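By convention, each integer encodes one residue's backbone shape. The lines below illustrate.
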Amino acid sequence: MATAKWGSRSIAIVLLVLTVVVGCAPYQFGNAALFPPGIQTVHVPVVRDATFRHDLGLRLTEALIREIELRTPYKVTADPFADTTLKCEIIGETKRVLTETDADYPRALDAAIQVRASWSDRAGRLLLNNSVVPTDDLTILFSQDERFVPEAGQSVDMAMQQAIEDLAGRIVSQMEIRW
């Protein structure tokens, strides 16, 4: 009678262990669970810049690479035959005066940058989807603006750099799997 009790317990323990081992196999842990599986490398070519400020493309490229390496399980590579390619183009940048002093000096300004982004695999399938408004467009438009106050020692370059870093974070966030 004691052996029958012991035998059923050992069978239950073995079944429990098998369920845990086999049942948990496809799950991913950590930040890898947030991103599409089966991708190991991402190629990020230098961001094209259609504005007069030609340093913005290089600055956005560096920010994108830093964000991908920091927040995703992917490795950024210079190989154009990587698993996926993230292409971006800066299509506009603006500076707008928000408030002025009595002497017409700008007090607070907005610096904005607009980017078109596309993430695709080797077969050309799009991986970057607009989660808010699905469209048939091959790219997603991103825009980011930052306020700066010259009287407080802030500059348009500082504002643009902050906008670029925020924009890179938003683009990499769009690389996550939709729930």
